[in-house]
Amino acid sequence: LWSDQYHFNIQILGTYQPQLNPKLVIRQSSPTQVSYLYLDEQSRLINMIAVNDSKLIKLAKRWIQSGTVLNPEQLTDPEFNVMKLKP
């Protein structure tokens, strides 16, 4: 799901699953680029909301499909290159 709202491109990936008690991880690369990633108990991505971050959405689709285990500390670090986390 995606929507363009003024100067913002908002994309939603996956389905929010509150029964999994997801952990919220926020990755902010700039004042206008932020992503909210929801990880399950094994640190696998279950859904996310991205604002002006289409590259991360493309990569996140592969993380969900492959069940990639992610490091929340790396995700929150805007200096960390998430492309190193290719499934």
Notes on the structure:
With 87 residues, this protein is α+β, with helices and mostly antiparallel strands. Helix content is 21%, strand content 38%. The chain is built from two helices and five strands. The chain has helices spanning 54-66, 72-76; strands spanning 2-5, 8-14, 23-30, 33-39, 45-51. It has a five-stranded antiparallel sheet with strand order 1-2-5-4-3. The longest helix is centred in the C-terminal third of the chain and has 13 residues, at 54-66. The model has no long low-confidence stretch (mean pLDDT 93).
What is the β-strand count? 5
Q: Give the integer mean of the pLDDT values.
A: 93
The rough form would be described as globular
Could you spell the SSE succession in H and E letters? Answer: EEEEEHH
* Biggest β-sheet: strands ordered side by side in the sheet: 1-2-5-4-3
Which parts are unreliable, with pLDDT below 50 for 5 consecutive residues or more? Answer: none
Structural class: alpha+beta
User: Strand percentage, roughly?
Assistant: 35-45%
Taking Cα atoms only, what radius of gyration do you get, to the nearest Å?
12 Å
Which percent bin holds the helix content? 10-25%
Q: How far is the first residue's CA from the last residue's CA?
A: 22 Å
Main sheet attributes: strand count, strand direction, barrel closure: 5 strands, antiparallel
How many H/I helical runs? 2
